[in-house]
Amino acid sequence: MAAEAKRKGAERGVLVDGALRGARRHVAWQIPGLARGVVGRENLGMNQASNAGSCGTMLREYMTHLRVEKGLRPLSCEAYLHDLEIFAEYLEAGGGDGLGVKTFLTAQQADVGGFMQHLREHGVQARSIARKLSCLRGFYRWLLMEKLVQRDPTVNIESPASWKVLPKSLAEGEVAEMLDRAAAAARVEDAAGTGLGVALRDHAMLEVLYAGGLRVGEMVALRQEDLRLETASVQVRGKGDKERIVPIGRSAVEALEAYLERGRPELLRARRSGGRLERALFLSVRGRPLTTQAVWQVVRSADRHASPHKLRHSMATHMVEHGADLRTVQTLLGHADIATTQVYTHLAIDRLKTVHRMCHPRGRRRTVEA
Fold first, then answer.
1. Given this model, what pLDDT does residue 339 score?
2. At residue 23, what are phi and psi to the nearest 5 degrees?
C-alpha cells in the first residue's frame, strides 16, 4: 500500500509540473501592456516572501488541488495557471491603482476590477474575461479555505453578460449533408477495398459527435468498453472525471458497428510493433489513439465551417428547437450548472410561443385573424 501511494504521489507531481511547464510555454501570449518577461521566474517577479512561501509554490499547491481533488485535466490546469500568471504580472505592475508591487495575498477588490477593465480596454473578448474571472474566483476560494487570505477580492465583481450569447451552430440540413457525405465516402472505400478503416472511423466519429454532443476531449478518451451498443448509448468521462451515460441513436450505433467490425481491426494492424492491447476506441492510421488535433482535422475536412464544438452546440440547439427541455440537454452535455445550459433558453421560449399559438384558443384566433 505504501509503495502504491508513493507511485500515485509521483504521478501527481509529474502532472502538476507538466502543467506548470506547459503554461509557461503558452504564456508567451500576453495582454498588451503586461508582457514583461514574467514567465519562468519562480516568484513571478514578486520580491516579497509571504507566509505561504513563494508564489510559485502557492501555484503548484493550487494546481495539485485542481488536478487531484477537483479531477481537472492537465490542459484545464494549464489554462488556469496561464490566467493566474497574467493576473500576477498585473499585480506586480501595481494593480488597480498602479502604486507599489502587489501579490495574490494583498490584492484588493479594486485590483480585480482594474484587471477586468484592463482586459476590456485591450480588446480581450468578454467570454475570455469571464473565464479569467471564474479562474480567480476559484483560486481565492481555495486561498480562503487554506486560510491564506481573510477576504475574497472577487466578491461583487460582475461577470460579462456575454455568457448568454448563443454559441454558433450548424443548420440541420448542413449536419445531415455532412454525415451523408461521410457515409457515402465509407461506401466508396468499401467498394474499392482501400482506406476503409479511415473512412469508417471518420463516419463513426462524426455520428457520435453529433448524436451525443461530446466534447473533443471526451471523444478521444472513449474506449471500447465504454460502448453500450445494445442500449444505443456510451459512457463518457467529462470534466472533473465525472461520468455520464449518453444515448447516441440508431445511426451512430450502425456506424460504430461497421467501424468496430471492419475499420478498427484494419487500423490496428497498422501498428509497427506489438505490446499492450490498445483500448482507445478511435485509432490513427498507425494504430495509435487519436489526438484532439486529429479529430479537429477530420471534422474540418468533412465541412470547413464545422468544428467538434460547433457540432456539440448544433446537437443541443436542434434538440431544444424540437422541444427538449433544458434539464435534459444539461444532462446530455454534462454541464455541472444549469446556468451554462441557459444560453439555449431563447430557443425554448420560441418553441413555447409556437406551441402557444398552435394550441391556445385565443392564440390560434389571433393567428387566423392575422
1. 75
2. -65, -35
Residues, the chain:
370
Q: Give the percent of the chain with pLDDT over 70.
A: 77
In the block, cell 457540432 appears at 311
**This prediction's pTM:** 0.62
Active-site residue list: 215, 239, 309, 312, 335, 344
- Residue corresponding to grid cell 421560449: 349
Cell triple for 363: 392564440
Residue 370 has pLDDT above 70, yes or no: no
Residue 84 · residue 139 · CB < 8 Å: yes
What domains lie within the chain, and their CATH numbers?
2-164 (no CATH), 172-303 (1.10.443.10)
